[in-house]
Amino acid sequence: MGQPETTIGEGREMVEVEKGELYYVCEENVRVPRWQETGPRAYICKVTVIFLLLFLLWQHARSAFARPPRYARQVAGVPQYVLDYAPLVWLDIGEEYFPSDMYAQIANTHPEINLTTIANPPTPLTLHNLDVLNDYGNDGMDVYLTSNIDVTEGPKWLDGVVPDSTGETRDAISCAVVVNDRGSGNVDAFYMYFYAYNLGNTVLGRELGDHIGDWEHNMIRFKDGIPEAMWFSQHANGQAFTYKALEKEGLRPITYSAVGSHANYAVVGAHDHAIPDLNLPYGFLLDFTSQGQLWDPTLSTYFYNYHADTGSFDAINESPLGAMHFKGKWGDEQYLDSDPKQPPPFFGFRKFVGGPTGPWDKQLNRTNVCPETGIPCIIRENLGP
Predict the structure, then answer these.
(1) In a domain, 70, yes or no
(2) What InterPro entries has UniProt attached to this entry (predicted)?
(3) Less CB within 10 Å around the terminal CB: N or C of the chain?
(4) Domain of residue 325, residue span
């Protein structure tokens, strides 16, 4: 069967062959593929095709690497659903204090009790043996990991590590995932986020509530591997939402980390946290969230199982246990009013307050999705303040 022909110029014809490819037919009846055609018009065509191909490749690479993957990696010993549904964290566009390496907190501090350095502390301290400090000061609870450098001098280690284009905090383990299997298919997964510094709120021009060390978290409650609800750590109480209600990237729910304070919210915008369980878009105690840098905490994390009957942890893949069992504080003790670092009190509030306790003290075996604070646990079915 003959091929249809189209006249394209004197002595030349263009024919269509299989798969729709076009050929030029010369006077000598030699078929020339269109991509081999010469001349200005053919040159422009080739350049255009090459440009389009490069553009498409760039778009593909941009979409593949500009944000963390929707699906988390596999980790031996960790239920896959704990990773598949792990939160992704949007850090605020104005953030200055990023997720931090847990060991850097030890390397840049020394233990103190009552603002006095512990004499001859065990050395060297590591994340594996940090709980040896529980032998001091009220089973460790009076121990503070105190900065070696005056906080007012702005030590660089407090800045943390900016996540890269994949969402990983390179060379910085900045998260601890703790799994509490409560039996009968009920599992609570805690995603603990560590920051070296917490920048407090500014109230009437005064910065209040700064502290070295900051532990925040989300908790997802699973039933037979299916996520039911997620809790967001905030200041006085926090909030909980059904999994269905949450913003997601694939299966993974989104949490927004407030600039400076790192409190977790389900939506972007301004959040006044003066009233527990209610975040209004205006007020005196405002947090702000936005889509700045996307962080995937599961890419740089330690993993643990928690045993409620003994209040102890099991390490998964040799994660350091001392960091979880340490009962002390992960930052400086609140400075005295007479300390030059501490500005005068503002209606009883201080700029610098004491550092936080670690994951062990975050009610890892709670009955409700929310921790027990005396405030009703409301699980919202719709996103909102």
Answers:
(1) no
(2) Vps62
(3) N
(4) 80-380
